[in-house]
Amino acid sequence: MNIDIGRWKHVFKLDPDRDISDSALERVCMSGTDAVMVGGTTGVTFDNTVDLLSRIRRFEVPCVLEISDHDAIVPGFDMYLIPVVLNAGNPDFVVGQHHRAVKEYGPMMQWDQIAAEGYVILNSGSSAARVTEARTELQADDVVAYARIAEKLFRFPVFYVEYSGMFGDMDLVKRAAAQLERTRLFYGGGIDGPDKARLASEAAHTIIVGNAVYENLDRALETVRATQE
Ligand SMILES: CC(C)=CCC/C(C)=C/CC/C(C)=C/CC/C(C)=C/CC/C(C)=C/CC/C(C)=C/CC/C(C)=C/COP(=O)(O)OP(=O)(O)O
Ligand SMILES: O=P(O)(O)OC[C@@H](O)CO
Ligand SMILES: [Mg+2]
Q1: Whole-model pTM above 0.90?
Q2: Of 54, 64, 46, the residue nearest 22 (C-alpha)
Q3: Which of 160, 191, 206, 217 most suits a substitution to test ligand 2, by most atoms within 8 Å of the C-beta?
Q4: 158 assigned ligand-binding residue
Q5: Which bound ligand lies closest to the C-alpha atom of 40?
Q6: Which domains does the chain have, with CATH numbers?
Q7: Where Mg(2+) is bound, by residue (predicted)?
Q8: How many CA atoms lie within 13 A of 191 on its CB side?
Q9: What ipTM does the predicted assembly reach?
Q10: Residue 228 burial (10 A CB sphere; 0-12, 13-18, 19+)
């Protein structure tokens, strides 16, 4: 399947470590979202990732893996997104884990199916911040500088402003997006219904909805239409 992340406005992120019923999964996959991203910070394994992929494959929606664990790199996704945590305190999450993975998988990697995401993690209470030891005390101009690094220095296709678990500062997101010419700004965190989806869509190129799927599916599904208005 040909994946064009440049056209994505809305993405659902599903966590292999969380339960979702067949009927809920069907509603997510048939919602009109641009893609389903599989990923999570903790408890992601090869087995639970294969299991979720095979269930999503009953539908036509594009399905991409956001790799967060070396042992959970599963073949068969349409594309692979690789987080590079620009504000990680632990350099393992900037390039260390990536080095190990490319050393192992390098000969069989299809690079046109792989895209790097320059991440900035801003919710200090999130698992992602804890695991990566992220430096979350950032001002808007720090994030703007990271956006420039992501696009101009590293030429990453995606700059991901991650507030996982809380709704972030949309002025900061707008300022970061305004720096970008080709790189897409993904925003994720605390989008629990259509109002926040609209606000986030005005600031970011692409919005990611995660926890709401598990907390209030009806409202989560309403975020799809909100981005298309
Ligand atoms: C044969 C075959 C399958 C070939 C494939 C080849 C291929 C694609 C190889 C990959 C090569 C490569 C470079 C891999 C990278 C390896 C790796 C493990 C990198 C580290 C990734 C990383 C920085 C992880 C840190 C955590 C993080 C940023 C995760 C991103 C997702 C995220 C923030 C989810 C939010 O999680 P959630 O659970 O919602 O969090 P909360 O609990 O806080 O809500
Ligand atoms: O779970 P939420 O808070 O919606 O965040 C979405 C996503 O950015 C998590 O990586
Ligand atoms: Mg989550």
Answers
A1: yes
A2: 54
A3: 191
A4: no
A5: 1
A6: 9-226 (3.20.20.390)
A7: 15, 41
A8: 33
A9: 0.94
A10: exposed
